Amino acid sequence: MQDSVHILQQQVTQAFNDQKPLSIVGGNSKNFYGNPLDAQTIQTTCHTGIIEHEPTELVITARAGTPLSEIEQALAAHHQTLAFEPPYFSSEATVGGMISAGLSGPARPYRASVQDAVLGCTILNGKGEVLRFGGKVMKNVAGYDVSRLMVGSLGCLGIILDVTLKVIPETTAEATFIFKMKPNQCPAFMNELRHQGYPVSASCHFEGELLVRFSGGNNEIESLNKSLGTNYAYIDTRQLHDSGFWLDLKEHSLPFFSLDKEDADLSLWRLSVAADTDVSSLIDAQTNFISEWGNCVYWFKSNSQSELIFNTAKNIGGSASVFKTNNDAVTNRFQPLSAVVSNWHKELKNAFDPVDILNRGKMYVEF
Amino acid sequence: MPDTKKRRQLLEGLKSLLDAQYILSTQEQLKPFECDGLSVYRELPLVAVLPGSTAEVQAIIMLCHDLAVPLVTRGAGTGLSAGARPHPEGLLLVLTRLSKILDINPKTMTARLEPGVRNLAISEAAAEHCLFYAPDPSSQIACSIGGNIAENAGGVHCLKYGLTVHNILRLKGFSMTGEEVVIGAEGLDSAGFNLQSLIIGSEGMLMVITEITVNLLPKPQHTEVLLAAFDDIATAGQAVSNIIAAGLIPAGLEMMDNNAICAAEDYAHAGYPRDAAAILLIEIDGSTTNVEEQLKIMREVLNNSGLTALKIARDDNERALFWKGRKSAFPAVGRISPDYYCMDGTIPRKALPEVLGFITALSDEYGFLVANVFHAGDGNLHPLILFDANVPGQLESVEEMGGRILEKCIEVGGTITGEHGVGLEKIRQMPLQFTDLEISQFHAVKMAFDPDDLLNPGKNIPMLKHCQEYRALSRNLEPNRLLTQHKTVE
């Protein structure tokens, strides 16, 4: 537990004066995500500790360097949890990294995203100014919503110092059912389940099977066997104690996610689309893939040129990103932006970090 | 109207862009647009226009940009912070004619809308697919989705279903230079910075929005509405904390004090107990089994929280009636007083007894009756201060009293506005919530999108030169920094 705002502020101010770029590092759990940086590191792990947790307010505030595991343990002690199931990718993962990366887990379409849960944050901008935005209440529309802007900005706009998050009560029971189903049948089926009032909390299609997780009250989950069995032909169930699949999916520890090092150009791609999108132009029948979030996200591997994948993704109304790659030389990892939006990004970067020292080029090489 | 060169150029330019009947320029034509729902702030624009297509919107924006004319966008005009009050040297862009529901897609559970679509009309149209749009501000019968985006509107179901920002997938519109922009995507993620969150709630100061894709939700299988009465407002406040501590997240959790109860009951005949000091209105929804489980726990919690009476709505009609009382609380109070001033601070729930006690003391000090309606689930207070604007000095006193309530909200760790926006109304309190550095950062954000400061200038973010002056007028000289003073927990 340590407040190191002044140390971090000094480092940024020095870098601002010297115009020397900084690479922001927390637990270093997601260093594969985004472009590699060649810059002096600034460590946020010295700035740690839960500042406040008010269980009856459904709010927790923690410093950026606080291990994510510490947050989840503190919440679990009060039967609470983070709605968006953040992936760790290493036990060292921190709260600051979670916000900067902005990655949500399997529950995202049914509960919340990272940005949905952010109520406020304190940041250090590129001039070394300590700024607080948002607050610790559920509703707050004073000024622009800069706290949520920080989510997924990969440290390009500021160093997160602390963040306040909305939390939710844990559900008491959980079960996973497995259905034999083609990928294109999934969206309609998932819709039907939701319309029927089933408490869906995650879904994933993998190797010809659709796995659906349900979370709710004890009676509600117990009654699923009967009601789902009557209405649908499921082939298997996995109860709460056997929920390892969702953890493996979230943490990318399923064998599918590992990249064969033999292929120096191979990348793991993530495609985000509307649930009813025909993705066959990008992912053909031969391609091994995983879809989750009710077919709103697809994971696949490819060694094709990034531009090719970006163009196809754009044509089907989606966006693609290189999630991790064997090829460090790949510098266009995120879907290109339109001219106006790209210009807004540059101007925003300039507004927060006028001498361009914070994670320069981490998201897009131009800023 | 002043016959300035700029006004003549503007009118001349507009003539070639849209039909003359949609260009309003005389005093009589402009009068209905002089204010939004906060009618104490009034101003006539140079001209008001009602375009009927996005192409017309784009052309109007380009004209304003070329002539350097400030542009204020207006929806249904129900806003409560003067965010859509016209600029005296500007154009008022009224988007009510863009009111088409472009598409409802039951497969993706989304709707594509023009900005003038009324909030309630979305759920009405989605009902045939058993879907609904969750954010439901009390003005939902009239307010439009474009305005909801501008203010990040909330409603009575925010605790479970979130605010506008949680229910939007994609925005289309124009930059102040007239270039077409798409923000967000039809999927759940989009590339780049999270601009959507920044634009939602930005009070029309970053771009003009002409198409919105919203997320729809399946209608819950089962709903129950409970009305719990208490003989003490602090006990009711504690009951709210007990509900949350029991792990329940009701779809709605509202509180009203006795003044609000009586006004609403007279108006809506909702069956509220007139003798209660406070009532909680609680909605639980979900699958039938789940609602049964929640209801059992809820009854236990309420019974152990010192309630004096509990009613559970018998059927859909009674459920609707219970809500009608709450949703019509503002007009109901409007009937018993010539004017009322509606505040919108949000506080941590635990501070409720302290803040309500403070408001009662202020009510005595200033001699104005206050009716409190409160989104108890998410800590959003709406004290309605009753006054008569025709009595000289009353408006100024009410504004001062309102300012002190907002200062109190900040002091206990809350905010000056939960869902109504800053607009012009709360701009004096912004320097109490934010430091000069933070306000400068807001200005820098604005400049990134609108370097000529033409989109709704003068709203939301105060000029730095006024900040010290505003702070000096209040008792606090610097923004409260409660958060850092909180004890850290081991």
Distance between the termini of chain A: 34 Å
Mean pLDDT of chain A: 94
Low-confidence parts of chain A, pLDDT < 50 over ≥5 residues? Answer: none
Choose one word for the global shape of chain A: globular
Across the major sheet of chain B, the strand order is 15-12-14-13-17-18-16
Intertermini distance of chain B: 65 Å
| Helix-and-strand structural type of chain A | alpha+beta
Under CATH at level 1, the class of the largest domain in chain B stands as Alpha Beta
| Annotated CATH topology of the largest domain in chain A | Uridine Diphospho-n-acetylenolpyruvylglucosamine Reductase, domain 3
Report the radius of gyration of chain A as a whole number of Å.
21 Å
CATH architecture of the largest domain in chain B: 2-Layer Sandwich
Specify the oligomeric state: heterodimer
Helix content of chain A: 25-40%
Number of strands of chain A: 17
CATH architecture of the largest domain in chain A: 2-Layer Sandwich
The rounded Rg of chain B comes to 23 Å
Count the domains of chain A. Answer: 3
Largest interface: A-B, 99 and 104 residues
- Beta-strand proportion of chain A: 25-35%
